[in-house]
Amino acid sequence: MTYKPLTEETAVELAKKIGPFKEGANIACREIGDGNLNLVFHIQDETKGIIIKQALPYAKVVGESWPLSLRRATIESNALRTHAKYVPEFVPEVHYHDEELAVTVMEDLSRLTIARKGLIDGEDYPLLSQHIGTFIAKTLFYTSDFGLEAQEKRVLDGKFVNPDLCKITEDLVFTDPFADIDTNAFEPELKKDVETLWRDEELQVKAAQVKYKFLTRKEALIHGDLHTGSIFATETETKVIDPEFATFGPIGFDLGQFFANLLLNAISREESKRDILFYHVENTWKVFASTFTKLWEEEGTEAYTKTKQWLPIVLQDIFADSVAFAGCEIIRRTIGLAHVADLDGIANEETKLEAKRHALLLGRALLLHHEQAKDAEIFRTYFTNTQQRKEVEA
Ligand code: SR1
Ligand code: MG
Q1: Beta bridge partners of 50
Q2: Residues 242-258: what's their mean pLDDT?
Q3: Closest ligand 1 atom, residue 332 Cα
Q4: How many Cβ atoms are within 10 Å of 36's Cβ, its own excluded?
């Protein structure tokens, strides 16, 4: 079949051909895509449902002037299938993929809620950090040069060459927010704060260094866009979706994006309701480090994983990277092209501006001091200091 964007009608026709529906079933379809890039159709009859996701040949958030490769749909379905090998409990099942149509048919997760929305509505998701810490540790360990034979890893790396989507991250996360670029978006009242950031030469150097790390460190298969909008959750279940940005990159990247989005939600909450977010940040790191350690000790593939003294050094590097990536993500979600509803949805204008100023200072502090960051409590310390406008000491 040649590529054509689906409509609700043609999505139903496709579902009838490949879906689990019986002849004559009463099928309903709704386009529910609220992300920046794709069409997403929820299709159901009285008893079951499926999701049909289709990539558009351009970035939906900007329009046809920003062309994007359809191959990302294949990258996404390959990533979901790779993740399913290691953590089937944390990903939706892929039923079908058509490369030409850029379509992936997958498990209907509508019994769960997107974690960003739930967190904004005040949900706590007590198991979120346990699940995401495990997801990140396993998917990254098993695709890294600690858990996969080198030759296999090189072959897998070749399946995830993802230049278009990597460029989005390179531009939107590491470059544009640090300069006066048209696509940045922020309230005029923040202009002074943003200009201070643009003039901060020390910060510019750190941003350049971590962008270089993202470009050059092909350590493991990263999800590549692991914010709270890429996670479905309930009190007991967690599913990671949308790995269309998947590529080989630094192990700390997914951790950093997840930390940042938890912290952005914490900024948006009243003081008394923030503790659960700090708990999730700290526990994600704790679960990640302990799971990664166990895998290293029990399933390390390379002779060098027998060098016990090296593991704490590897973990320290991953942690410091994650702090830097978190800093960039916080800054870009505040003044870059793609914002988050956690901050933009704050109803009171003055509170919103204060929250965004806090976010900029927190992002800056994390990026500036990431090399000295030793344990996950620093997120809480930097959060409080920047909220009180205290200069953060390394
Ligand atoms: C043009 S795409 C903007 C953002 O949406 C995606 O979810 C990624 O986070 C990307 O940076
Ligand atoms: Mg997405």
Answers
A1: 43, 107
A2: 98
A3: 11
A4: 14
- The stretch 358-367 carries a mean pLDDT of 98
Closest C-alpha to 221, from 143, 130, 152, 321 = 143
Cα–ligand 1 centroid distance for 312 (angstroms): 33
Ligand 1 proximity of 225 Cβ (cutoff 6 Å): yes
List domains and CATH numbers for the chain.
8-107 (3.30.200.20), 113-393 (3.90.1200.10)
- How far does the centroid of ligand 1 lie from the alpha carbon of residue 338, in Å? 6
pLDDT digits (tens, 9 = 90+) for 307-327: 999 999 999 999 999 999 999
**39, 54 Cβ separation under 8 angstroms:** yes
Q: Which atom of ligand 1 is nearest to the CA of 66?
A: 1
C-alpha–C-alpha distance, residues 293 and 238, integer Å? 23
Phi, psi of 302 (to 5 degrees): -95, 150
Q: Is 165 in the pocket of ligand 1 (CB under 6 A)?
A: no
> Buried b vs exposed e over 269-297: b needs ≥16 C-beta within 10 Å?
beeeebebbbbbbbbbbebbbebbbebbe
- Is the CB of 338 inside a 6 Å radius of any atom of ligand 1? yes
Query: pLDDT by residue (tens digit) across 259-298?
Result: 999 999 999 999 999 999 999 999 999 999 999 999 999 9
